[in-house]
Amino acid sequence: MARPKAFDPADATREAMETFWERGYHATSMNDLLSDMKLNRGSLYDTFGDKKQLFMAALNEYERLGNELLFEELNKPGSARDAIVEMFESAGETCVGPDGQKCCLGLKAAIELAPHDPDVLAWVRRVTKHREDVFAKVIERGQREKEINPELDPRTAARYLLTTLAGLKLLGTTAPRKNEISEVVRLILTVLD
Asked: In this predicted structure, which of 93-97, 130-134, 162-166 has the lowest mean pLDDT?
């Protein structure tokens, strides 16, 4: 009979997520992970497999948390346009300061690994498609409510919003001033007019 785990795998996955997010995949050593997760080597390998499998588990947790936030922000009752505006304003505020310089784990994975790792590329494509679907639906709702330009193709507009959101996160790594981010957010949102 297997002994029960002396740690919570979900907590350990979140710790690994933070470590990868802070350092990137290649710059994170197994010793970094063991130290931050407070695990011994055997427990890590028995539960998660190798570093790559742990990274994929961390990406999946990051996706889960991001999807919860995105769904909550974009699908709340009321104006679809206001939901998009508030989401971008909130994202813009996150881009300012130390949190902004941290960037986004998904964006880091896309840049660092997706060009040569088919598993990460598949993850990036899946996440992007799902988020595009979420944005397209809220844009369609805003068009039905006559508060978003009815001539916009919802899928193209969703893709545009996701692309500019990634750009905002990348801009955040340069430690921009709040007014610089606010100006960019206002310009991005003109697409809805």
From this structure: 93-97
